[in-house]
Design brief:
The chain is 37% helix and 25% strand. The protein is α+β, with helices and mostly antiparallel strands and 159 residues long. The two termini are 13 Å apart.
């Protein structure tokens, strides 16, 4: 287990404001042996806020072996929500939910809906984000619809 000062450092680097309890940091670092940790936050659908979502998750999971992979997967899902859903419209947002416990992590990104369009095969730019998620995650999927919004999620082992 890292020293308390080490637990605060990722939070400082991530630029997280507001309270983040030592219990939440400890739980995220060792979810198999600690009470579950849960986090939910809405973000404006901009690249800067997608980056902030990634940094916040990385800080919460500091010390967890899956932290870097989870942050990368979240980055992909937040970028998709910001670029490909109605969340990209003025005032749009996406919501991130993360739950860690019993050696497992589940992260969800909910957008504001719109059509679900798969990229054309062989497209020069983009279209690889969900491939990255499917490679790194134990499982992933989506729920919802184009009217109420899509929730894309992934699960990883945290042990």
């Amino acid at each position: 287990m890292p020293r308390p000062a080490a637990a605060a450092e990722p939070r400082k680097r991530a630029g997280i404001s507001g309270p983040l309890t030592a219990t939440a940091v400890k739980s995220a670092q060792c979810p198999a042996a600690s009470p579950p940790v849960a986090w939910s936050q809405a973000f404006t659908a901009t690249p800067a806020q997608a980056r902030q979502a990634r940094r916040t998750l990385a800080a919460l999971l500091a010390g967890c072996p899956a932290a870097d992979d989870a942050a990368l997967c979240l980055s992909e899902l937040a970028a998709n929500a910001s670029a490909h859903s109605r969340s990209r419209e003025p005032g749009g947002q996406f919501t991130v939910r993360a739950n860690a416990g019993e050696g497992r992590l589940r992260v969800e990104v909910q957008d504001q809906g719109g059509p679900w369009v798969l990229p054309e095969h062989g497209a020069d730019q983009g279209g690889r984000g969900l491939l990255i998620v499917s490679t790194l995650a134990r499982d992933w999927g989506r729920t919802g619809d184009s009217t109420v919004g899509w929730t894309v999620w992934f699960e990883m082992n945290c042990t």
